[in-house]
Design brief:
By secondary structure, this protein is an alpha/beta fold. It folds into 2 domains: about 15-140, Rossmann fold (3-Layer(aba) Sandwich), CATH 3.40.50; about 145-300, Dihydrodipicolinate Reductase, domain 2 (2-Layer Sandwich), CATH 3.30.360.10. It has 10 helices and 15 strands. The chain has helices spanning about 30-40, 55-65, 75-80, 95-105, 120-130, 145-155, 185, 195-205, 305-315, 325-340, and strands spanning about 20-25, 45-50, 70, 85, 105-110, 135-140, 160-170, 210-215, 235-240, 245-255, 265-270, 270-275, 280-285, 290-295, 345. It has a 9-stranded mixed β-sheet with strand order 14-13-12-11-7-10-9-8-15. A 6-stranded parallel β-sheet has the order 3-2-1-4-5-6, sandwiched between helices. The chain is globular. The model has no long low-confidence stretch (mean pLDDT about 95). The chain binds nicotinamide-adenine-dinucleotide. Nicotinamide-adenine-dinucleotide binds near residues 24, 27, 50 and 91.
Length: about 350
């Protein structure tokens, strides 16, 4: 299936002219440092950090001596010459911050998920077009060793024609106190890891989305959660029907008393490909024989994300993670959320 190819005139003659400002330098995974280091490796120049938490600003100043620091985004946009802004903030801030930066004429890389709703994605895509700048999502896991191996095996024909893709992330217990457990801030239990799993799925199933059915169990953990009625679903479940007849499921649950093994399983007409964080397993049926091949996942190649961004902005190389591609998993998540509330399947607006 064809999506828009983003080719634009090179904006910079050298990657070091790309001056990067990050918004959000949080402590959960120190993602700000990771982004700036990866962008440096791609030849770009770390220039500024906008972060309201003074303690985190101090960390940024220590890790990148001489970097400009701002408590407010509008101040950074007004005073700094940053021309590419990276959003590393909670999910409900992605769309408003992206619009603010795009409208200020800055290129934008948004951490995953691109946004929470389809309409937010539409507005971000329109704003980027209007300002004639780039917007993309940091889908680093597009280059996970596991999905790269899965695509290689599937394309070789080893497991036959793909019938179904199942994604499952399960644990037992009350969601943590962090913002990811707030429905209004995170988008819901499916958004944080589910968007990665859906992005894997969309690489495997190269077909248009037909419809989405969502299910949600709410209220079991809410009484014990700091977020009360705003706590994410105990379990979110989505079924995606593709126009080529393949279907995919996604389950993210805090009600998994007997956590199932694995993260993704692809079932084909000749066998299956299964993986978790570290390992994969290929099972092929040949007559009465069952041939199982186990292996460690190859290393991640996340550096390819910013290498592509730099090449896009300096040489006009087509963008790999286009905004239209980024909108596809969000459209599924958004439809699943609405479907669960309405109790019926919903047709896809964007295939
Ligand atoms: N791609 C990946 O592998 C990966 C891994 C971890 C996190 N993430 C994503 O990164 C994003 C941030 O997650 P995190 O774990 O770093 O969260 P975090 O809570 O550690 O950090 C968020 C930071 O954003 C700041 N912030 C909040 N609102 C802001 C605003 N309006 N302006 C400026 N700063 C603001 C907060 O003060 C905080 O320091 C999320 O989208 C998350 O899904 C992606």
């Amino acid at each position: 299936m064809a999506l828009a190819i983003h080719v634009m005139k090179p904006r910079f003659s050298h990657a070091n002219e790309i001056k990067v400002g990050v918004i959000g330098y949080g402590g959960a995974f120190n993602m700000g440092r990771m982004h700036l280091q990866d962008m440096q490796k791609a030849g770009m120049t770390p220039r500024a950090v906008a972060e309201p938490d003074a303690a985190r600003v101090a960390v940024a100043a220590q890790e990148f001596p001489g970097i400009q620091t701002y408590a407010r985004v509008d101040e950074m946009l007004a005073k700094s010459d940053v021309n590419l802004v990276v959003l590393i903030t909670p999910h409900n801030t992605h769309a408003p911050l992206a619009l603010q930066c795009l409208n200020a004429g800055r290129h934008v890389v948004c951490e995953k998920p691109f946004a929470i709703t389809t309409e937010e994605c539409d507005a971000m895509i329109a704003a980027a077009k209007k300002a004639n700048v780039m917007v993309s999502t940091f889908h680093n896991r597009h280059w996970d060793g596991s999905i790269l191996k899965a695509l290689e095996v599937i394309r070789s024909g080893m497991i036959g024609d793909v019938v179904r893709v199942e994604g499952h992330m399960g644990q037992w217990g009350k969601p943590g106190d962090w913002w990811r457990s707030s429905k209004s801030i995170s988008g819901g239990v499916l958004y944080d890891w589910g968007v990665h799993v859906l992005e894997y799925t969309l690489q495997i199933v190269n077909a248009e989305i037909s419809e989405v059915t969502g299910f949600a169990k709410r209220g079991f953990w809410a009484a014990q959660s700091k977020w009360g009625a705003d706590t994410v679903e105990d379990e979110g479940f989505a079924v995606v029907r593709f126009k080529n007849g393949v279907w995919a499921t996604l389950c993210v649950t805090n009600l998994d008393a007997n956590p199932k093994r694995g993260m993704v399983e692809v079932t084909g007409t000749k066998g299956s490909f299964w993986w978790d964080y570290d390992n994969h397993e290929i099972t092929v049926r040949d007559g009465d024989a069952t041939i199982v091949t186990k292996g460690r996942n190859p290393p991640v190649q996340w550096e390819k994300y910013y290498a592509n961004i730099a090449a896009h902005l300096t040489q006009g190389e087509p963008l790999v993670i286009t905004p239209e591609w980024s909108r596809r998993p969000i459209h599924i998540l958004d439809l699943a959320d609405r479907s669960a509330r309405e109790g019926r399947s919903l047709a896809a607006k964007y295939s």
